[in-house]
Each structure stands twice: as structure tokens, then as C-alpha cells.
Design goal:
Elements lengths: L10 E8 L2 E9 L7 E8 L1 H4 L6 E5 L6 H7 L3 H7 L2 E5 L28 H5 L4
Parallel strand pairs: 4-5
Antiparallel strand pairs: 1-2, 2-3, 3-5
């Protein structure tokens, strides 16, 4: 596997109070993604904000989805607040700077398959 994320690269982009907890969005430079900026979000229920240990649920979005899809449509935050669950939402399709073919303006995410079978091993830390 590639190098782990450096915590010093973590940047909090926003923080929104909801259901007694807090929804925070973060970005970081990802070595596993060739240095691209990766995004994720975390909902901290009131229990976690009060210093209690809480279980964590990680949601992996579908291809081309962002953290916003589930945050806006999932309706999970009230349930997480009631159950004391920390919810981590990942952007499973980090946006590329350069796709390398004519699909670049349309296929700006890794959810779109490249024509080159070796593309993934050259661009990402995927075995």
C-alpha cells in the first residue's frame, strides 16, 4: 500500500450544526491518489462532542458520488444522533486534474473507466 495520509495535510473546509451534533467536511492530499485532493465528511453526534467514545460507521458512496449525495438525501443524521454513531462519508470518486483522453470534460472522476488497462496501476495505488 502507499503512504498513509499525513494528518498535517488535513484541512477542515466547513462545520455545520445539525441534530445536536456537528457535520464537518475535510480535504487532504492523498498519496494513494497520486497527490490529488481527496474529500470526506464526518458527522459527530452530540455524545461524541461531549467526549464519549462512539462507534463509527463508514459509508462508501457509489461511483461518481460525492459526500453530498448521502448527506443531503440519506436522512441519517437524526438516527446517528439518537444512536450515538459517528458517520464518515467518503468521496469514492476523487476528481482528476487530467483524465488523459477526450472524455476529460465529462469523465472527470475515477468512476469512469479508462481505455488503458494499466491506467489504474500507473495513476493509483490499486493492486
Amino acid at each position: 500500500m502507499g503512504n498513509p495520509m499525513n494528518p498535517a495535510d488535513l484541512t477542515q473546509k466547513s462545520s455545520t450544526k445539525c441534530f445536536g451534533g456537528e457535520y464537518r467536511e475535510y480535504t487532504h492530499s492523498s498519496p494513494a491518489l497520486g497527490g490529488l485532493t481527496a474529500k470526506f465528511a464526518v458527522y459527530f453526534p452530540p455524545q461524541a462532542l461531549a467526549g464519549k467514545q462512539c462507534p463509527v460507521v463508514i459509508h462508501l458512496s457509489g461511483l461518481t458520488c460525492t459526500t453530498d449525495n448521502f448527506a443531503q438525501k440519506g436522512g441519517a443524521f437524526s438516527h446517528c444522533a439518537n444512536l450515538g454513531l459517528i458517520l464518515v462519508l467518503t468521496d469514492t470518486s476523487p476528481r482528476r486534474k487530467d483524465h488523459g483522453n477526450e472524455l476529460a470534460p465529462i469523465a472527470a472522476s475515477d468512476g469512469m473507466y479508462g481505455e488503458d488497462d494499466n491506467y489504474w496501476s500507473k495513476q493509483r495505488d490499486i493492486q
